[in-house]
Each structure stands twice: as C-alpha cells, then as structure tokens.
Amino acid sequence: MALQKASKIWMNGKWVGWDDAKIHILSHVVHYASSVFEGIRCYVTKRGPAIFRLEEHMDRLMLSARVYRMETAFTRDQIRDACVEVVAVNGLKECYIRPVIYRGYENLGVNPFGSPVEVAVAAFPWGKYLGEDALVKGVAVKVSSWQRMAPNTLPAMAKASANYMNSQLMKMEAKLDGYEEAIALDVHGYVSEGSGQNVFAVMKGELVTPPLHNSILAGITRNSVITLARDLGYKVREEVMPREYLYAADELFYAGTAVEVSPIASVDKIPVGSGGRGPITKALQDAFFGIVRGEHPDRYGWLRPVPQLAAEPSAVAVPRSS
Length: 322
Hints:
- By secondary structure, the protein is an alpha+beta fold.
- It has 2 domains: 8-127, Aminotransferase class 4, branched-chain amino acid transferase, N-terminal domain (D-amino Acid Aminotransferase, Chain A, domain 1, 2-Layer Sandwich); 134-292, D-amino Acid Aminotransferase, subunit A, domain 2 (D-amino Acid Aminotransferase, Chain A, domain 2).
- Helices cover 25% and strands 26% of the residues.
- The strands form 2 sheets. Strands 8, 9, 10, 11, 12, 13, 14, 15 and 16 form a 9-stranded mixed beta sheet that branches. Strands 1, 2, 3, 4, 5, 6, 7 and 17 form an 8-stranded antiparallel beta sheet that branches.
- Strand 9 (181-185) and strand 10 form a beta hairpin.
- Helix 2 crosses helix 3.
C-alpha cells in the first residue's frame, strides 16, 4: 500500500517537510532495528476528526521505550500532543498516525548506549488495510510455518520494530502461497496472533482469544473488542487456543488498529463457518464502527477530538530540562 504524502512531520519538536524528514544511514536504528512505535487511527466524525484511544497508545509507547531503556527528551504528554497537532497541521480528517522513538546517529555497534534517542510523529491518509471488501467477505489465511518468538527472546508486549521482522516472514510467505494473511503459533504450538493483528474465535456463541502469555501484543483494538463484546452480552474467554480451534470455530476475525475488525473466511483452505462474515463478527463491527465514526455515543471516552488550528505552530513540544 503506497503512502499518500502529507505536508509535515514532527521531528524532535520541530516541523519538517515530508520529503526532508530524514535520518543518517549510519543511525543505530537502521542497523539494529532499535525503535519502538505505535499505529493510531484518526476517524472522521460529524464533529470533526477524532483519534481513537490515544491515551492507551501513548501508555503502550512509553512502556515499549522503557523496556528497551530508551529515555526521551520529551514527555509522554508532549508526544501525545504532537500526535494531535500533526493531524491538524496537515489538515487531515481520516488518517493513520505513526509516532516512533528510535536510536539515531552517534555510535555504531550492538551496544545502543551512546546513540541519541530521537522522536518523530507522522500522519497520513490510509485506507482499509485488507481492502474494503475484506470487512464483509473476509480473507483467506494460512497457519504460518514461522512461529512467534519465545517470551524470553524478544518481549512481545513491547511494540518494537524488531518484532516485525518475524511478521514480515509470515506475511511474505502467506502472500506468495496465495493467501492474504497468516496466523502464527507460539513456540508451544498454540495460536498466537497474525502478522500484525490479534485473533478471535467464536465458539458456540462465545468469544475466545489467546492470552498475553501466548506471545501476543496487548492489542488496544483487542481490548476494545473484549469490552464491546461483554457489553453486548457475549461471554469472552482469554484462554490457550489449540490450532484445531481455527478449524472448529463458527467465526474467526482479526482485531487491530490497521485491520480494525476483519473477518477470516478460511484457514488453510478450510472454510470458517459459512465462509464469510458471521453474525457476531458483524455485531462487533457495527458497535466498533458506530463509536469510532461518531454515530453512537462515545460512552467509553475513547475518542480524542482534534481541534482545527488557526495557524501552524512552530513546534508542538519542548524538550524537558534535564
């Protein structure tokens, strides 16, 4: 999916033109994947643009940075404010926001200490990750030959760029084998997650999803789906899922910022239920999209409105004093 350019990107407290937002080729992040990031959606509503669960995304970003001992010159709230401002400065309505904390240019070696910790926030238009039709028809997926990393190798709860090398292997294999997506098993052979999405199964009217110890990311959309499902009266179980659940489920769907709530039509060429979107998946989609599009009351306080700027600010955040 080719990126649509916006006008400006926030880098270390300054506005930089899209084509000028560059780093040195010998930056630590280029060679050792030393970065953490978030993917955040901003939706257009009747009252203007609104960012979905921004506070939770900021909490996870700072947790990821903490795990990797990346101390930034900017506070959590300064980065959060930059996420709001980057939408307004670029005049965007519905878009994707990408804050990233990374180690820049100074030293080169496995030891990351000594390389500066940089922060950037970009926003740009972005459509449906798996395509518009996927929200109704679902997608064909396979169980990947690539397992998710063991919990004592890379921390799955940190949203680090390095983790997505594993995801790329899964995604490339799936595409080359004629599937749209993949589902990975963990090192014990139990269901983990997709290449960048959490997985839910509907079993006899109840939702089942893998727990955190199955090497999954603690997804914010995952948490939202669990909340919505329980409020709709569905029982939700976080439990270890054998691979066979993928073939026995009445419905399967992905949940994630990029895919939102997307049904899975088949796994390893075995149809899921009727081979399309099931009724519970649709009910959850309706509840989810109703809130993020402003059609239903924001009863959970998930939406952060984006104020329209009268003039472009020179900067959004100022480094805190040491």
